[in-house]
Design goal:
heterodimer, A: alpha/beta, D-Maltodextrin-Binding Protein, domain 2, 5-stranded mixed beta sheet, 5 strands, 15% strand, B: 401 residues, mainly beta, Porin, 16-stranded antiparallel beta barrel, 3 helices, 8% helix, globular
Chain lengths: 142, 401
């Protein structure tokens, strides 16, 4: 009986740890050519809402976003104070009325990271556990 | 004749539905073409309307499939700051639109920085919360935006203008203020929905109606305050037309021409929207108005006043990934004429939206409409004896890509 309880507790702990490991928190990533750009919370919001379209010295900004999931929800809530649904509607409205170029959207973080790494001026977000040296991790000033 | 027209309408509707189904399999969202910066997007919708008593907003008493919209847009970036794009659009609302393809917007946009940008060409007309997104089913649960402020009959009059716009955004503490100022001209013609306002029986012009309409200019601006309160924004929009002029056979004596002109006709719209969790609350108040003069040969010119007052409140809630519900109450009335129920329109609406996939949605909506203001009786939309109240049902499916 005791063995069974330990197995259940052990299994639950494993699932909990796996869940925690699966989502370490969002990281803002960029192409290496934007490493020298100054980003703060205000400019980050302007970038993801399509109000700021060019870097100071790194050309046009290309946005890359995840289509959904907890990483996208947490990042967009923090960066632009919107849910994924509200963010998508914001960009649908802009793209369909001539107000902006829609972000590139990705299902998989690996694909988003690869796109950012290969696209000058690109910026996006992924789970921090999935960031690597192919991109720069950006930390907006408060 | 009506039977033939009805059959054609059903035939087009079936074709449209099949096209919609075919495209649904291809839809993947607005995407770049290869490695280029070219993006393509668009939508296609097909609906069905039924009104119990009046032909409003189209010839829909007894049901009609003559209710659809479609658009395709292409855009690309030029260098770091410029963007160019265009959208073709077609619609049918009863006898309006006739599925003719028009240029909805086509513009060159140069964004110097977040504070200042310029758009040139055919530019979307900013008015109220949703004026630039009149056709975007995908961003709302409603089939029709509140008619009091966003008349579907005036879609072709309110969608875009030819001219220039400056725009930008200031960050002020924890809020921001977006601005847009514009000047241009709205392309109009007797074939467009706006002419229904002139062609109403007992009005200015004899059948078949107004022969020419022109606008000298439209000037306006919009300020949006994105407040420090999460999800709360206030919008104020103002615009005015100069010399909105029309000519046609005078209703009383069709052999003579009636010239009718608004030297200045203005729109004032104050709006608020609050997005809270899965809810969206909105309210808008709008007045329109201006002095007009009209003249027939060998008679002195006469003058008068025209104006409307309108408001609505709405609430919608996203229930889950699939379902969204919404409701609104709108009130529209004539500011200068009191003629019983012919001078107002009260509209209570309830909507249900179902998202089949990311790109395909369905909507169903019911309206209880009291009053017959702007329920026109024209050659294209007949209402010889409009009823005081009516019930409107609308069903619509939209594919966006």
């Amino acid at each position: 009986m005791k063995t069974r309880i330990f197995r259940i507790i052990g299994g639950a702990a494993f699932v909990l740890l796996a869940a925690l490991q699966a989502f370490a928190g969002p990281s803002l990533i960029g192409n290496k050519n934007v490493a020298g750009e100054k980003i703060d919370a205000t400019s980050l919001k302007s970038i993801f809402l399509g109000k700021k379209v060019a870097w100071d010295g790194a050309g046009r900004i290309t946005l890359a976003v995840l289509k959904g999931g907890p990483v996208a929800e947490e990042f967009l809530k923090g960066a632009v104070d919107m849910s994924v649904s509200a963010f998508n509607n914001h960009w649908r409205r802009l793209a369909m009325t001539g107000g902006g170029t829609a972000p590139k959207s990705f299902e998989k973080e690996e694909d988003l990271r690869k796109f950012v790494a290969e696209t000058p001026g690109a910026i996006g977000f992924i789970d921090s556990a999935n960031a690597d040296t192919s991109v720069v991790v950006l930390t907006p000033a408060p | 004749m009506n039977k033939i027209s009805s059959s054609l309408g059903r035939g087009r509707a079936v074709s449209a539905f099949l096209l919609s189904a075919a495209l649904a399999g291809l839809a993947r969202g607005a995407v770049p073409i290869g490695d280029s910066n070219v993006q393509i997007g668009g939508f296609f919708s097909q609906g069905w309307l039924y009104n119990s008593d009046n032909n409003y907003p189209a010839q829909d008493k007894g049901g009609t499939f003559d209710f659809r919209e479609m658009a395709v847009n292409v855009s690309t970036t030029l260098g770091s700051h410029a963007r160019i794009g265009a959208q073709a659009f077609a619609q049918r609302l009863g006898a309006l639109g006739e599925d003719k393809v028009i240029l909805d917007w086509a513009q060159l946009d140069y964004n110097f920085n977040p504070l200042f940008g310029v758009r040139l060409g055919r530019v979307k007309y900013p008015k109220g919360l949703y004026g630039e997104a009149l056709d975007l089913d995908v961003v709302r649960p409603y089939v029709f935006l509140p008619n009091a402020v966003y008349s579907p009959v005036l879609r072709d009059f309110s969608a875009s203008f030819d001219g220039a716009m400056i725009y930008g955004s200031w960050n002020v503490a924890k809020s921001s203020i977006d601005y847009k100022f514009f000047y241009g001209k709205i392309p109009v013609s007797p074939q467009k929905g706006v002419s229904e306002f002139y062609n109403d029986s007992g009005g200015l012009y004899a059948a078949p109606g107004v022969a020419s309409i022109n606008i000298k200019s439209v000037t306006g601006g919009q300020l949006t305050w994105n407040t420090p309160v999460s999800g709360l924004r206030f919008v104020y929009s103002y615009s005015f037309f100069t010399n909105l002029a029309s000519d046609g056979p005078f209703a009383q004596y069709p052999v003579v021409n009636l010239h009718f002109n608004f030297p200045r006709l203005s729109y004032n719209t104050a709006s608020a929207e609050y997005q809270w969790k899965s809810w969206v609350f909105a309210a808008e108040y709008q007045t329109t108005g201006g002095d007009y003069d009209f003249q027939i040969p060998i008679a002195p010119a006469s003058k008068g006043k025209y104006g409307t007052e309108a408001w609505y409140v709405s609430a919608s809630r996203r229930l889950n990934d699939k379902f969204e519900v919404g409701a609104y109450y709108g009130d529209l009335k004539d500011r200068y004429t009191s003629n019983g129920y012919h001078s107002y329109q009260h509209d209570l609406a309830a909507s249900l939206r179902y998202d089949l996939t990311e790109h395909v949605l369905f909507k169903i909506e019911a309206h209880r409409i009291e009053g017959t203001y702007q329920v026109f009786d024209t050659v294209r939309t007949t209402n010889p004896s409009p009823k005081e109240s009516s019930t409107l049902f609308a069903v619509k499916t939209t594919l966006s890509f």
